[in-house]
């Protein structure tokens, strides 16, 4: 994040606690709240195809969650809200409120962009390689990325945990101006990496913490060399396939599989549809994904519980050495190098916040969160879209926080 707010397509995720950071978005959209029926979708766990299979009367807890979601949609002036809650892997409630487009009701099987949800999958896939003894997190990336500047100092761990010291191209004013002017532009990794590599490192690799999209572009490049296969295939084999995420996929174009939850934004000074703006700038090719609310909830549980990892791998996922890092220096301002604490810190592809394990993508009019509380085996997933008067920030986090406060008042999600 820049020391001063800058316009851009990434909504700010710099919480007070300093976790996932991006450039600030100008806020978006309004529409009159529509009352939801006293029923909700009751999927059978088979991905989004079952999200609209049947409708059954809700029990008291499910009705309460729907009412909380309906009120949040009204308070935040949201176009649509999709949400799903599971406990012990069993559905509590799944529903969709509002509309995808005028005259098209939102449905729980609609697909949306999932952004940094992919980082959680990539982090878990990397830790599987560590579990198998195929790599060490502290291996310098020089053996796979020999032409990268400082490749002998930067390790796999540093890329995966945002401790490399690389600048974040998303905060670069020239990049943001081009992104805003040409939202359909296709970006290559070479073009994106040229921006942070034109700057000196914020700090000596491994000594501090600062979020940079460049880290995961480079991590993907290294993992493709390590595995000898495209990252989309590797993650499907190791993570999304085993978790049964049938409606989560990489997209090499701006296409979103049908049915689509459409997005809108006012960030360019006018309220407009942003559904098919090109997301190639968000991360490496092969890791630009879409999903649905059922898959996102399953992802929250699978990643957040360490289902695919050894005990040691799971411990590393939750704290790979970031706790205690994050302090401003002469070259790294406090808005960039932010304190990572035991309570709230970036793990390995995930955010750990007051015992919750989460990811919170937000860009181009889409906002979402997948969150899991291991002690209660509780998973919450929310996806939101905007109207012309929606406030700034990740509105999906606000909805999820309100739901969590009702379900676990002694350990809710931290307020955004």
Helix content: 25-40%
* String of helices and strands: EEHEEEEHHHHHHEEEEHHEEEEEEH
What is the number of E strands? Answer: 16
Report the total helices. 10
Tell me, briefly, the overall form.
globular
Unreliable residue stretches: 1-49
Largest beta-sheet details: 9 strands, antiparallel
Radius of gyration: 20 Å
Q: Which structural class fits the helix and strand makeup? A: alpha+beta
What is the first-to-last residue Cα distance?
Answer: 17 Å
Q: So what's the oligomer here? A: single chain
The average pLDDT is: 89
Strand content: 15-25%
What does this structure look like?
By secondary structure, the protein is an alpha+beta fold. The chain contains 10 helices and 16 strands. It has helices at residues 60-76, 117-131, 156-161, 173-181, 189-194, 213-227, 231-240, 293-304, 311-318, 395-407, and strands spanning 39-41, 55-57, 78-87, 90-101, 104-105, 112-113, 249-250, 264-265, 272-273, 289-291, 344-346, 351-353, 356-359, 362-363, 366-373, 378-386. The strands form 4 sheets. Strands 3, 4, 5, 11, 12, 13, 14, 15 and 16 form a 9-stranded antiparallel beta sheet that branches. A 3-stranded antiparallel beta sheet has the order 6-10-7. The protein has a two-stranded antiparallel ribbon with strand order 1-2. A hairpin with a 2-residue loop joins strand 14 (362-363) and strand 15. The longest helix has 17 residues, at 60-76. It starts with 38 loop residues before the first strand and ends in a 9-residue tail after the last helix.
